[in-house]
């Protein structure tokens, strides 16, 4: 149980504020997370880590010399929004590129992915290395599907040390990928964790039992076992991890025993002692191990064992010094403080537009008002549709996103189309949450970037905007036709638009025809079985019902078609 808080909804933010205040010699609070408050070398790679809150010392506690340059910090167990990641990375960037690294979870992948696109588009070269160490989450031939747990630490540590040593982005990325490949973990839970303000834990483990293969967000384990003795548990963890060891593993290994929140250090040490003997008996040499709380899960009772299989270069970076609030190693000359105040301010500049550009910007504001009102009208129905096989939040998520986007667009009145749409997209992604929030946010930003703040638009520009929307959604979400997602309405929309455009139909009429095609295609998703998103595990239930994201896309485009028809001087409308 978490006892101390004012408002549970503000828990993560208030905890982060206090953390930064208590660790000012290491970190400074920025909009979206924390960055190093000590000097970094000009031109060095910025390792930006992050994820949900509730995992301390991950992620903010690992920001400092020799480790991460910054951490984007989401709400409890929830990915940070793309805008947060973007702002944090931008503030942390030193001119040598950005490496984003975080655990492999769908929400994080979407939001960090969107931030990466934006950073790259602005000329800040950004790459991603996902942490996929949890051997319980997918078989060894599907490493890329595994989720990230305590292996976060080894990947961050090696990448951070490489960045500190002045290696370039290619090298830091290569080392991070290699470290992830050579890191394997397995965890167990004795009891679930409880979110602040909640009266029930996210899951429970029956008395006298242990759950094997837990996640770190309150996902229950994959199998239940009778509670073992410490020796039996050590045996189980070591055996499973040795079976899963990478090719070329070698014989030098870093074992990490990680407590998840409420297991006492003495118990962790006791277990470590037994693990150490088993590894040594297997002919392995132990190098600079760790035993303590490194990646936690609120007040979860449980622990994990991670093995990092070293080679010479990984050993060098694993052993390198680090100096962060929660992780210190070796000795490092004390770093001078830097002035972090301008780092966040620089990000907010606005370009004004000419009157013609502003008039078109106002049409974009009107379009976003339409999006908001269409969603509001159908919120309940969309929620019910999502509840059939998903989690029931599509209506509320879309409403939050649409409202935030319309409000941001109104606030950006007086500038051009690009500014309006980019602000709206950022706000959408930040406020909506969920898969659809990340996708719509990214897509609006992409359309804004494609259109720019211009004084007039041609039919060709409209086609480019549709293309940008489609490409943003498919690049980020990676869904294909037939997966039963909004893409099943989006691609028919784009195809119809393109056919009309090719035949010389003006954009407003082409958009109308495309919206009709989207609506029809959305209805037809009823016969499909979901292959992506949260509905996948409940595929059977979904049969016979259309996909909520496809339906909302059809409704929104129909609403927009009507708005575009009613706008003055429709030839230069923004779609
Ligand atoms: P969540 O799935 O996170 O709860 P929502 O309920 O708001 O988010 O949105 C669900 C919709 O998101 C689905 O109906 C589907 O149309 C869409 N979706 C899910 N995954 C993808 C994806 N990878 N690409 C495109 N659309 C997707
Ligand atoms: Mg949902």
Defining key terms:
single chain; 575 residues; alpha/beta; Rossmann fold; Serine Threonine Protein Phosphatase 5, Tetratricopeptide repeat; 2 domains; seven-stranded mixed beta sheet; six-stranded mixed beta sheet; 18 helices; 15 strands; disordered C terminus; binds adenosine-5'-diphosphate; binds magnesium ion
CATH-assigned fold name of the largest domain: Rossmann fold
Any idea what the CATH superfamily of the largest domain is called? Dihydroxyacetone kinase, domain 1
The set of bound ligands, ions and cofactors reads: adenosine-5'-diphosphate, magnesium ion
Secondary structure class reads alpha/beta
Tally of contiguous helical segments: 18
Strand content: 5-15%
Under the CATH scheme, which class of the largest domain?
A: Alpha Beta
Number of separate domains = 2
Task: List unreliable stretches of 5+ residues.
Answer: 570-575
Measured as a percent range, the helix fraction is: 40-55%
> How many β-strand runs?
15
Per CATH, the architecture of the largest domain is: 3-Layer(aba) Sandwich
General shape: globular
Q: Could you report the average pLDDT, rounded to the nearest whole number?
A: 93
Q: Kindly, what is the distance between the CA atoms of the first and last residues, rounded to a whole number of angstroms?
A: 51 Å
- From the alpha carbons, calculate the radius of gyration and give it in angstroms: 25 Å
- Main sheet makeup: 7 strands, mixed
């Amino acid at each position: 149980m978490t006892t101390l808080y004012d408002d549970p909804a503000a828990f993560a933010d208030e905890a982060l504020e206090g953390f930064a205040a208590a660790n000012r010699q290491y970190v400074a609070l920025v909009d979206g997370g924390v960055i190093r408050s000590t000097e970094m070398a000009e031109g060095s790679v910025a390792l930006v880590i992050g994820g949900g809150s509730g995992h301390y010392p991950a992620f903010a506690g690992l920001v400092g010399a020799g480790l991460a340059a910054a951490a984007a910090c989401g709400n409890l167990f929830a990915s940070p929004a793309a805008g947060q990641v973007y702002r944090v990375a931008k503030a942390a960037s030193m001119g040598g590129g950005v490496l984003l690294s975080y655990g492999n979870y769908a929400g994080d992948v979407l939001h960090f992915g969107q931030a990466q696109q934006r950073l790259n588009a602005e000329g800040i070269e950004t790459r991603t290395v996902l942490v996929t160490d949890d051997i319980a989450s997918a078989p060894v031939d599907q490493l890329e599907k595994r989720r990230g747990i305590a292996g976060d630490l080894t990947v961050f540590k090696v990448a951070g040390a490489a960045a500190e040593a002045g290696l370039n982005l290619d090298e830091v990325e290569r080392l991070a990928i290699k470290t992830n490949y050579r890191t394997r973990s397995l965890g167990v839970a004795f009891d679930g964790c409880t979110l602040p303000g909640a009266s029930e834990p996210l899951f429970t483990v029956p008395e006298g039992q242990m759950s094997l293969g837990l996640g770190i967000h309150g996902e229950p384990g994959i199998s239940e076992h009778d509670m073992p003795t410490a020796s039996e548990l050590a045996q189980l963890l070591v055996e499973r991890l040795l079976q899963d060891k990478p090719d070329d593993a070698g014989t030098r290994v870093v074992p990490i025993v990680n407590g998840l929140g409420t297991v006492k250090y003495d118990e962790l040490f006791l277990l470590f002692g037994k693990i150490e003997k088993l590894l040594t008996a297997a002919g392995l040499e132990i190098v600079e191990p760790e035993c303590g709380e490194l990646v936690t899960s609120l007040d979860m009772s449980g622990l994990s064992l991670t093995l990092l299989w070293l080679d010479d270069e990984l050993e060098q970076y694993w052993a390198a010094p680090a100096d962060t609030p929660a992780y210190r190693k070796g000795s490092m000359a004390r770093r001078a403080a830097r002035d972090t105040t301008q780092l966040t301010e620089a990000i907010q500049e606005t370009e004004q537009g000419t009157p013609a550009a502003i008039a078109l910007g106002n049409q974009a504001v009107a379009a976003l008002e339409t999006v908001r009102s269409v969603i509001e009208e159908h919120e309940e129905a969309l929620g019910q549709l999502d509840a059939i096989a998903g989690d029931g939040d599509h209506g509320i998520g879309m409403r939050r996103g649409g409202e935030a986007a319309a409000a941001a667009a109104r606030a950006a009145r007086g500038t051009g189309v690009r500014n309006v749409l980019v602000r709206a997209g950022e706000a959408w992604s930040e406020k909506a949450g969920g898969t659809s929030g990340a996708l719509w946010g990214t897509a609006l930003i992409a359309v804004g970037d494609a259109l720019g703040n211009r004084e007039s638009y041609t039919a060709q520009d409209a086609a480019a905007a549709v293309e940008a929307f489609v490409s943003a959604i498919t690049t980020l979400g990676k869904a294909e036709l037939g997966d039963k997602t909004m893409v099943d309405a989006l691609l028919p929309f784009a195809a119809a638009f393109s056919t009309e455009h090719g035949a010389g139909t003006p954009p407003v009429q082409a958009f109308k025809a495309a919206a009709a095609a989207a609506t029809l295609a959305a209805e037809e998703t009823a016969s499909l079985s979901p292959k992506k998103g949260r509905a996948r595990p409940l595929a059977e239930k979904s049969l016979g019902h259309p996909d909520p994201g496809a339906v909302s896309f059809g409704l929104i485009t129909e609403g927009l078609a009507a708005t575009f028809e009613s706008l003055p001087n429709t030839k230069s409308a923004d779609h």
